[in-house]
Design goal:
heterotrimer, A mainly alpha, B mainly alpha, C alpha+beta, A: mainly alpha, Four Helix Bundle (Hemerythrin (Met), subunit A), elongated, disordered N terminus, C: alpha+beta, Immunoglobulin-like, six-stranded mixed sheet, five-stranded mixed sheet, about 20% strand
């Protein structure tokens, strides 16, 4: 009954386009995660130079060049993978997706190496001083997000191997890649704040 | 060919057992059921936290009382505050949003029904974890029980050294869980409102309720991370030897305050804006006029949301910020009052020239208007920094925020309850019992919270388990405690009303209030699929257009553009 | 019946404890006896007047609307004119509040500056207040005085301006110094030093509280500001500067005191007791209360406190020293020589 009264040629036939739910949801997630990281970044910047004891960033931090290259390249490989998926180039997609995973894994293992060095050779733990606390918290928060992303990437890869992945899933894959780009963007910020400004 | 005979199914389905019904609730992803579950759980915690408040008032009724020991009292006010904000306020918002938004935008369910259920159960487990602290928190030497650090848990009182046992850990963990629930619910509501509106329902035709839910949930996304981040940092301090808030190692206690209030101030707007949402739906219907200044209401709400992220340090005027810092936050705080005032004026403008029907929802709305006006004005007083130096951390502040949260938010929620209960349950609540609820509660509210302003002005600080006679606080506290009893009885009348109405209440029909938004276009309660056919709308008040084809809203709205 | 129920509850629950740190005096922020509380009051009255007027106007309009536009019985059929809004009205009720806000900001920033930017004159008394769970340590560095829980200051009468400037620090958690008749409150935060000042004009004792929740006994962390006429303040200071006499007519008590670990926490100037964890006891008997206002300073209360502090202030950090009754009496006799 309502519809008849309201049905107006104007309304019924014009296009009714609404944004994609998945896209809006991922944007919301990225928004809220950005706020989370911002607080840790603020804490890091606030406490720069305020540690009562050493070591200082300059004394123990080295620019993580290789791991950064790996992580940022993984953003490129994931874009290429998406394009391959769109063009239904299955083997290329699987290859590029796996490459993304490998690059992420390299990043994580190099971070782990760095932490090992810092803890056992340079004497910097999370409880050593304010720098240690804020450093491990911020970098660790980022690393945990990389791990989550890695799990998502692996899941997609496994589905692609079992043949469950179809063109129906294109947007979902795109959303995972958006999350991945977010994680990389956060690394750019963390890198700048911790390894460039902080030293 | 033989004619097949098919036995018609009877209209009465066999009764569902209680177990099956409960199982249905556990596995449901239906936004209506989950919405009611959110609200129902919140009401349980409203009673629990409310009883704690009654106990607090009884302890403070006379000087040097020994009803509650200091440690018990300190746990009570901490749990009362924490529960009311996180286990009552937030879930009611989630529940209202989840129930009403899909109905108001003419769609079948939320964008992510399973996520909806996930959010609800995270909330429930977080809530249970908080109260489990009474049992689980004792640590070394039996220290520790429920959290006793105040609902804003200032550092370094929450550090390992000063908060022994696991009380603070329960505070952190339970809130991290409920925050996950709030965050996913927020994402769900935002996505639903932006991507699932029925045909013709543009953003500027959405009911104001939906607009305000949208704004509130965006604020949740932006504000909650600050609390979660601070809590994670506190966990690092407490368990990994970190120094975020460890003043002995150069950490800053004030940093906790900043992070907490960067969450905490937007949080109070997150709490109140849904109250505004209820007001903006109910006042027009019972004034028989559209909301005055719809676009301004949208704009004002957005301005409140934006500005509210820039006022947080008005909770910290006594911390010793510079005069520049203090002045900045005074300015921003006063500025946020302007769009808030504009909304009051718009509700007034809606009533003006109308034909006001004094049904129970509207009566609660009127209570809101007077009380929120006072609350806003005491807020302005608190924004005047030197005045704040006397008033902060005193009972004046306690009076102010209870005026906002009870006198404002709870009244608006009561109004919403009486208004939408018939939609959800198919029966009207009894008007006489509703009036008893209103008057008893209002008398009690004013006895308690009007007097509290004065004890604050007379120098009574917050969070004290007792006080000496001779400071001029005795009579005020006694009156305040009597008021608590009235409020409890008022709520009891609401409970009786609900129970009676479920069995014997007058049937509501689709549209008992002669309202104009889409939820009233379907049955009460709505079927699982909400609408038989997807609605198509052309104005802000689709049902007004149906009922008044000679004077439809879309004629005015389209000429407006 | 409800009233009866409530009162029965209160009657059963509340029995007044025998040991009271009774404070005298109502502490209304509108009856200040000092700057800056006086200037705060003046600002506040203006703000109250403005807010009161706003309330009167808006509430008046609300009442008018409810009465005038109430639905009358019998007028069922028609709906009122559907008015959607008015840009002019919106503008008006945006601009007017903005103007009010502007005025309030001017008043606010002026008062903030007056209070926060004052520099201590040469005649000012300088004191440091250090917050502890749940007592106040008070030091006068220039005068060489250390005391607890009572801040003694000179009055500023017409002739000479003698404000007291306070440095606020904390040894543990966050506290807040609030004596409503004298000034607004300022927090004591560990790892941070805050500044405030008071300039009382009338001699007397001004009660106050800790105003930042600091744990179990936050409610019993009371502060007293004792304002002396200027010459009496000098006399008080001289007395406080004296060390405790080495001669005493309570030698048994002193022996008990020094034999137990009292000296680990407490200082008695001029003796080997140099503990810093608890209050300085050198002039204990010059104070009106014990345990930061938890009990008045009487012999009975002192006895009760020494026997078992937890009975007066449960949760406080002074342990029960498990003294015998005789030892308690002896210690109390000794403490009472610390004038």
């Amino acid at each position: 009954m309502i519809n008849e009264a309201l049905l107006h040629p104007n309304v019924a036939t014009t296009e009714w386009k609404l944004p994609s739910s998945r896209k809006v949801a991922i944007v919301c997630l990225i928004l809220t995660e950005t706020c989370l990281f911002s607080i840790f970044v603020v804490a890091y910047l606030f406490y720069l130079g305020k540690s009562l004891t050493g070591p200082t960033p300059r004394e123990v931090l080295e620019l993580p060049v290789l791991s950064t290259i790996c992580l940022l390249s993984s953003s490129i490989t994931i874009v290429l993978a998406e394009r391959a998926f769109k063009n239904e180039r299955d083997r290329l997609f699987k290859f590029l997706w796996l490459l993304t995973i490998v690059l992420a894994a390299i990043f994580l293992s190099m971070t782990a190496r760095e932490w090992h060095t810092l803890i056992y050779e340079r004497g910097l733990t999370i409880s050593t001083n304010l720098f240690g606390t804020t450093f491990y918290s911020l970098v660790g928060l980022h690393a945990s997000h990389v791990i989550v992303g890695l799990c998502l990437l692996l899941l997609v890869f496994i589905f692609s191997l079992t043949g469950s992945l179809t063109q129906m899933h294109r947007e979902r894959i795109q959303m995972i890649s958006w999350y991945w780009h977010f994680v990389d963007a956060v690394w750019v910020v963390v890198f700048t704040v911790v390894y460039v400004i902080g030293r | 060919m033989a004619i097949q005979e098919i036995a018609l199914t009877t209209s009465r389905a066999p009764g569902i057992s209680l177990v099956d019904r409960l199982h249905g609730l556990v596995v449901t992803v239906d936004h209506k059921k989950l919405g009611l579950m959110y609200i129902g759980t919140a009401l349980v915690f409203l009673v629990v936290a409310g009883l704690m408040a009654v106990a607090i008032r009884l302890q403070l009724a006379v000087p040097n009382n020994t009803l509650l020991e200091p440690e018990v009292f300190n746990r009570f006010f901490t749990m009362h505050g924490t529960a009311m904000v996180f286990l009552v306020g937030m879930p009611i918002i989630a529940g209202l949003g989840n129930y009403l938004v899909p109905l108001m935008i003419g769609t079948r369910d939320m964008a992510f029904p399973r996520l909806n259920a996930f959010g609800y159960w995270m909330f429930v487990f977080g809530a249970l974890l908080l109260y489990f602290s009474y049992l689980g928190a004792p640590g070394l030497n039996g220290h520790g029980s429920a959290p006793d650090v105040g609902w804003f848990a200032y550092a370094p009182l929450t550090g390992r050294a000063f908060s022994r046992g696991h009380s603070t850990d329960y505070w952190i963990l339970s809130l991290l869980l409920t925050s996950v629930g709030s965050t996913v619910s927020a994402i769900n509501v935002i996505v639903t409102a932006l991507t699932m509106r029925c045909r013709g329902l543009t953003l500027m035709r959405m009911p104001l309720f939906v607009w305000m839910m949208l704004v509130t949930n965006f604020m949740i996304l932006l504000a909650l991370p600050s609390l979660s981040a601070a809590q994670l940092m506190l966990l690092v301090d407490r368990y990994l030897g970190g120094h975020f808030f460890d003043t002995q190692s150069g950490g800053s206690a004030v940093l906790w305050q900043h992070f907490f209030w960067i969450f905490g101030h937007p949080e109070v707007y997150i709490l109140i804006i849904p109250g505004f949402a209820c007001m903006s739906e109910i006042v027009p219907v019972f004034s028989r006029k559209p909301i005055f200044g719809y676009p301004i209401m949208v704009g004002a709400t957005t301005m409140i949301a934006i500005i509210s992220f820039g006022v947080w340090a008005h909770h910290m005027f006594a911390v010793g910020m510079t005069s520049v810092g203090n002045t900045f936050f005074a300015i921003s705080t006063m500025l946020v009052g302007v769009p808030t005032g504009i909304k009051i004026f718009n509700w007034l403008g809606t009533m003006y020239g109308g034909k006001i029907r004094l049904e129970v929802p509207m009566i609660f709305c009127l209570g809101f208007l007077f009380q929120f006006l006072i609350a806003g004005l005491t807020g302005v007083m608190l924004a005047v920094v030197p005045f704040n130096w006397q008033l902060t951390d005193s009972y004046f502040v306690v009076a102010h925020f209870h005026y906002v949260l009870i006198g404002g938010l709870l009244y608006a929620l009561f109004a919403g309850f009486y208004y939408w209960y018939p939609k959800a349950f198919g029966r009207l609540l009894n008007r006489k019992l509703g009036l008893c609820h209103f008057w008893l509660f209002t008398i009690g509210f004013h006895l308690t919270f009007d007097t509290m302003h004065f004890s604050g002005l007379l120098g009574m600080p917050r969070r004290i388990f007792t006080y000496d006679p001779g400071r001029g606080w005795e009579t005020l506290n006694l009156i305040g405690s009597v008021g608590a009893i009235f409020q409890a009885v008022g709520v009891l009348f609401l409970a009786i009303n609900i129970l009676r109405s479920l069995r014997h209440g007058q049937r509501a029909g689709n549209d008992p209030w002669d309202a104009w938004t889409l939820e009233w276009a379907t049955t009460s309660p709505p079927p699982v699929y909400n609408f038989e056919t997807a609605p198509v709308v052309r104005s802000r008040r689709p049902l007004w257009d149906v009922k008044h084809p000679e004077d439809p809203d879309w004629k005015y709205e389209e000429s407006e553009n | 019946m409800l009233f009866a129920f409530a009162f029965v509850c209160l009657g059963l629950a509340g029995h007044v404890e025998p040991v009271l740190g009774n404070t005298d005096g109502v502490t209304s922020i509108f009856r200040p006896l000092s700057q800056p509380a006086q200037e705060i009051k003046e600002t506040s009255l203006l703000v109250l007047a403005i807010c009161g007027s706003i309330f009167a106007v808006v509430a008046g309009l609300l009442v008018y609307a409810i009465v005038r536009f109430r639905h009358r019985a019998g007028d069922e059929l028609s709906e009122p004119p559907q008015v959607y809004g008015s840009n002019q009205i919106e503008l008006a009720w945006t601009i007017l509040p903005l103007l009010i806000v502007f005025v309030l900001i001017l008043v606010t920033s002026r008062t903030i500056a007056d209070i926060q930017n004052r520099k201590p004159p040469p005649t000012a008394v300088q004191a440091t207040v250090i917050g502890h769970q749940w007592w106040w340590e008070i030091r006068y560095p220039e005068l060489g005085i250390v005391t607890a829980n009572e801040l003694h200051v000179p009055a500023s009468d017409g002739r000479e301006s003698r404000p007291t400037f306070l440095k606020l620090q904390s040894a543990d958690v966050a506290h807040s110094f609030w004596v409503p008749l004298l000034a607004g409150k300022t927090d004591l935060i560990p790892n941070r030093e805050n500044l405030m000042w008071i300039e009382p004009t009338k001699p007397g004792t001004y009660p106050g509280n800790c105003a930042e929740y600091c744990g179990t006994q936050h409610a019993r962390m009371l502060i007293r500001v004792v304002v002396h006429p200027p010459d009496e303040f000098e006399r008080w200071a001289r007395e406080q500067q004296q060390s405790a006499s080495l001669e005493t007519n309570a030698p048994e008590g002193r022996k008990v005191f020094f034999a137990n670990s009292c000296v680990n926490c407490h200082t008695i100037a001029g003796t080997s007791a140099q503990g810093k964890f608890g209050p300085d006891l050198t002039h204990l008997m010059s104070r009106q209360t014990l345990a930061a206002g938890a009990a008045t300073n009487t012999t009975d209360n002192l006895r009760l406190w020494v026997r078992d502090p937890q009975k007066i202030k449960v949760g406080c950090l002074m342990p029960n020293m498990q003294l015998t009754d005789e030892e308690v009496d002896q210690v109390v006799a000794y403490l009472q020589t610390l004038k």
